[in-house]
């Protein structure tokens, strides 16, 4: 059986580049947050919009944030591939650069889906899960796919232009926390939210993803979510092109 | 008196003596150049071809452009000017099909975060080698490169020499027609190096074309059918090792041994004579009955020394002009003023 190049690269990404401790930390942290934040804030915040309880509000946000977790893991694989010259080695082999990029993004998506599954399992005893229709499930998966493409391509594009591991991982950590905290993952935007903060929150693509997943969970999916999906899709397309351009100009040789 | 004239020994590893295989050209550089920054060329005006089944050596000092040349030919870098072909396809248009026919051992170490054995098998999987073939080939490579005891260790935990062996072993996990080896034997001990060279020579005998960059010149002399010398990004000469050595016109070494130790006055007289008639004369060693010196007109000095020995009544036990080594020729080529031309630079630009 001939395995397509992209699939071979994805299998290689899973088998070689991620150690169990990293996976435990990456997926354990949001699961831990659902348990702790969900339990603690649930007592303080009696009601959050259509979600009802705070934990019901938090779970879809954490599910949406798994696209960031996936992207961080894929960015890490890419950076390690650069550090250990596997990018060069693979580019000398029977692969197109676009296939390597596609494999990274597919890896991002798969990690994100694994994260979604873990978050759902953790949330089940705390908040339960709503009965989703086929459309709502498709909306969640499409949102995760577009978001994973956007964030994965963004980190790969950044990683392509940087030759220092310290700098890359600093930027990645900042971006990760900035995107998650200045979004609607943990808390809603309300009338009382300062305008400046509201602008920043709505400039963050993760907000649209979190809102779309949340709307699917509360069966209140509407035209606004379609617009959000369009924005997310456009951004994903732009960052994908940026990543391809960055790959074309990728400088080989040692990185620090 | 016994006079040893330098002679060319056929190296153990070389396949066909000093003749160049006349196979079809499978890769070609035509006035090829590459600039990492606009106007600053790392290599320029490279024109040569790689023929099927040959071992082609790329020699040069650090920064001469060897690695850049390899990177262009294996399609990692697009030419900035000029062009070339790989298996008949223009370098800029080469894709997966052409790269599937080459193997590359890069100068920098590359690895996946699994054990040595898993690395070999994972790499074979990446190249689409069937599972059973990959398994048996991994065993073959672990055995050949003496990595069996390290099979379960992570590559980064290996010694420098073991890591280099691992790099070559991993690349040989898949089939190829053209293999680029960028300094594959750095850090290897002499025995391991010799075994790897023997193995590569055997693969070349069976039709594999090899491009080898190295700083170990006797290694190139032993293995390569043809050699190209790069200097400051330009190809200064191309030829067989014998051609390059024969074309060498620099100083050569003369070893002289007398039947008895020379008296200090005799040694001084000999040195004085050699300094007078020797072109670029340089005394390398003088101990008792032995005098070793270098001169450009080494062969004519043999007669001068014999004449001098007769005139002072000292018998010569042995006098030999050492055959120029590839290192002699290489140093000569890369230290000549830029623009100098060398014989056999038929393809060199």
Please list the strands of the largest sheet of chain B in the order they lie side by side. 7-8-9-4-10-11
Please estimate the helix content of chain B: 25-40%
- The ordered string of helix (H) and strand (E) elements of chain A is HHHHHHHHHHH
Q: How many H/I helical runs of chain A?
A: 11
Order of helices and strands of chain B: EEEEHEEHEHHHEHEHEEHEHEEHEH
Radius of gyration of chain A: 19 Å
Tell me the distance between the termini of chain B.
46 Å
Structural overview:
The complex is a heterodimer of chains A (256) and B (349). Chain A is mainly alpha-helical and 256 residues long. In chain A, 77% of the residues lie in helices and 0% in strands. Chain A has helices spanning 5-16, 20-44, 54-64, 66-83, 86-91, 97-127, 134-161, 165-181, 195-203, 205-217, 223-248. In chain A, helix 7 (134-161) runs parallel beside helix 11 (223-248). The longest helix of chain A is centred in the middle third of the chain and has 31 residues, at 97-127. The model of chain A has no long low-confidence stretch (mean pLDDT 89). Chain B has 349 residues and is an alpha/beta fold. Helices cover 34% and strands 27% of the residues of chain B. Chain B is built from 11 helices and 15 strands. Chain B has a 6-stranded mixed β-sheet, sandwiched between helices. Chain B has a 5-stranded mixed β-sheet with strand order 1-15-12-14-13, with helices on one face. The longest helix of chain B has 16 residues, at 190-205.
Explain briefly what this protein structure is:
The complex is a heterodimer of chains A (256) and B (349). Chain A has 256 residues and is mainly alpha-helical.
Question: Which secondary structure elements does this structure contain, and how are they paired or packed?
Answer:
The complex is a heterodimer of chains A (256) and B (349).
Chain A: H1 5-16, H2 20-44, H3 54-64, H4 66-83, H5 86-91, H6 97-127, H7 134-161, H8 165-181, H9 195-203, H10 205-217, H11 223-248
Chain B: E1 2-5, E2 25-37, E3 40-51, E4 55-60, H1 66-73, E5 81-86, E6 89-90, H2 96-99, E7 102-105, H3 116-126, H4 131-144, H5 160-171, E8 178-182, H6 190-205, E9 209-213, H7 217-223, E10 226-231, E11 234-239, H8 241-246, E12 252-258, H9 264-277, E13 282-287, E14 290-295, H10 298-312, E15 316-321, H11 326-335
Parallel strand pairs in B: 1-15, 4-9, 4-10, 7-8, 8-9
Antiparallel strand pairs in B: 2-3, 2-5, 5-6, 10-11, 12-14, 12-15, 13-14
């Amino acid at each position: 059986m001939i395995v397509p190049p992209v699939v071979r690269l994805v299998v290689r990404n899973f088998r070689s580049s991620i150690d169990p401790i990293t996976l435990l930390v990456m997926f354990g942290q949001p699961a831990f947050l659902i348990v702790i934040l969900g339990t603690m804030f649930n007592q303080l915040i009696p009601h959050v919009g259509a979600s009802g309880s705070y934990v019901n509000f938090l779970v879809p946000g954490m599910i949406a944030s798994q696209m960031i977790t996936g992207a961080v893991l894929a960015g890490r694989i890419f950076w390690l591939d650069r550090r250990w010259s596997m990018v060069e080695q693979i580019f000398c082999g029977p692969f197109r650069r676009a296939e390597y990029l596609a494999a990274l993004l597919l890896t991002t998506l798969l990690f994100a889906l694994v994260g979604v599954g873990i978050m759902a399992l953790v949330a089940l005893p705390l908040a339960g899960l709503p009965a989703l229709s086929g459309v709502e499930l498709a909306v969640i998966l499409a949102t995760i796919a577009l978001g994973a493409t956007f964030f994965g391509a963004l980190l790969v594009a950044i990683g392509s232009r940087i030759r220092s591991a310290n700098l890359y991982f600093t930027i990645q950590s900042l971006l990760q926390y900035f995107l998650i905290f200045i979004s609607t993952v943990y808390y809603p935007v309300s009338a009382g939210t300062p305008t400046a903060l509201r602008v920043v929150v709505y400039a963050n693509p993760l907000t649209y993803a979190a809102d779309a997943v949340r709307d699917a969970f509360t069966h209140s999916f509407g035209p606004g979510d379609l617009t959000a999906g369009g924005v997310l899709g456009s951004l994903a397309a732009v960052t994908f092109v940026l990543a391809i351009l960055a790959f074309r100009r990728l400088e080989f040789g040692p990185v620090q | 008196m016994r006079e040893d004239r330098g002679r060319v020994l056929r190296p153990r590893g070389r396949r066909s003596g000093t003749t160049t295989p006349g196979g079809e050209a499978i890769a070609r550089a035509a006035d090829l150049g590459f600039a990492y920054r606009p106007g600053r060329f790392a290599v320029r005006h490279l024109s040569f071809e790689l023929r099927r089944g040959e071992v082609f050596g790329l020699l040069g000092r650090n920064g001469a452009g060897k690695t850049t040349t390899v990177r262009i030919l294996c399609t990692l870098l697009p030419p900035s000017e000029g062009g070339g072909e790989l298996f008949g396809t223009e370098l800029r248009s080469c894709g997966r099909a052409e790269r599937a026919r080459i193997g590359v051992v890069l100068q920098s170490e590359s690895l996946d975060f699994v054990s040595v054995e898993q690395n070999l098998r994972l790499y074979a999987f990446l190249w689409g080698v069937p599972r059973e073939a990959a398994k048996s080939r991994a065993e073959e490579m672990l055995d050949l490169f003496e990595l069996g005891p390290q099979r379960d260790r992570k590559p980064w935990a290996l010694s420098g020499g073991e890591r280099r062996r691992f790099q070559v072993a991993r690349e040989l996990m898949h089939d190829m027609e053209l293999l680029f080896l960028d300094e594959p034997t750095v850090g290897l001990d002499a025995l391991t190096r010799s075994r790897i060279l023997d193995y590569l020579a055997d693969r070349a005998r069976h039709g594999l074309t090899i491009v080898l960059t190295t700083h170990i010149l006797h290694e190139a002399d032993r293995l390569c059918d043809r050699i190209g010398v790069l200097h400051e990004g330009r190809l200064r000469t191309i030829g067989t090792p014998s051609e390059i050595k024969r074309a060498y016109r620099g100083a050569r070494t003369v070893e002289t041994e007398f039947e008895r130790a020379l008296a200090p006055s005799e040694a001084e007289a000999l040195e004085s004579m050699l300094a007078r008639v020797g072109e670029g004369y340089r005394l390398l060693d003088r101990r008792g009955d032995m005098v070793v010196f270098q001169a450009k007109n080494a062969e004519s000095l043999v007669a001068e020394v014999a004449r001098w020995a007769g005139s002072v009544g000292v018998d010569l036990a042995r006098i030999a002009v050492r055959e120029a080594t590839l290192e002699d020729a290489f140093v000569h080529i890369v230290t000549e003023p830029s623009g100098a031309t060398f014989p056999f630079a038929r393809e060199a630009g």
